[in-house]
Amino acid sequence: MKEIVFATNNKHKLEEIRHLAGDHFVIKSLAEIGCYDDIPETADTLQGNALIKARYIKNKFGLDCFADDTGLEVDALGGRPGVFSARYAGDGHDFMANMVKLLDELNGITNRTARFRTVIVLITGDKEYFFEGHVNGTIISEMRGAKGFGYDPVFVPDGYDTTFAQMSLAEKNTISHRAIAAGKLALFLKQTFD
């Protein structure tokens, strides 16, 4: 069975991707390959950050791998927080602080349209492939739900009346930005390695 490294130690992302991949592949985390390095994310685009992480693992460990970067793009804020979504309120990756900052900035603003966008970079052999997914929605004014992570409690996808944080993992995985990008990745891997 094909083994591939997902350049993350984020348990939530890992769980989502493993759920999507099913039993076609063995998806390993950074910890499972003994990588505890703090890989910098210094690019100014989602694609750039994903590429930095994937190339780091490929160059250091020689393993086929993929990495992602995700951003929440809010129209009224000119696309912010975007590539800085995880550290919007500071370098601590504190999503509660990030959500509070976001809601403060949107206070009194009626246009609350936004989108989550994920870019995945796969490196297999000496080739690099890119997969993207996005989902449009609205930022609500209060947090709802205890599932998910990140900005999920304040994001209601178009066509739904519940936040990502109120959805089961299975339901979220049918429509989420990461699910769309990962679905493209999984289809590519199945077609390439099955």
Features of the shown structure:
194 residues, single chain, 32% helix
Description of the molecule:
- With 194 residues, the chain is α/β, with parallel strands linked by helices.
- 32% of the residues lie in helices and 24% in strands.
- It has helices at 11-21, 46-61, 95-106, 169-175, 177-193; strands spanning 3-6, 26-28, 65-74, 81-82, 113-124, 127-139, 155-157.
- Strands 1, 2, 3, 4, 5, 6 and 7 form a seven-stranded mixed β-sheet that branches.
- Strand 5 and strand 6 (127-139) form a beta hairpin.
- The mean pLDDT is 91.
Largest sheet at a glance? 7 strands, mixed
Number of strands: 7
Order of helices and strands: EHEHEEHEEEHH
Count of discrete alpha- or pi-helical segments spanning 4 or more residues: 5
Structural class: alpha/beta
Strand content: 15-25%
Unreliable runs: none
Termini separation: 9 Å
- Percentage of residues assigned to helices: 25-40%
Average pLDDT works out at: 91
Using the alpha-carbon principal axes, give the shape: globular
Rg of Cα set: 17 Å
Q: TL;DR of this structure?
A:
Helix content is 32%, strand content 24%. The protein is α/β, with parallel strands linked by helices and 194 residues long. Strand 5 (113-124) and strand 6 form a beta hairpin.
SSE diagram, text form:
Elements lengths: L2 E4 L4 H11 L4 E3 L17 H16 L3 E10 L6 E2 L12 H12 L6 E12 L2 E13 L15 E3 L11 H7 L1 H17 L1
Parallel strand pairs: 1-2, 1-3
Antiparallel strand pairs: 3-4, 3-5, 5-6, 6-7
Helix pairs in contact: 1-5, 4-5
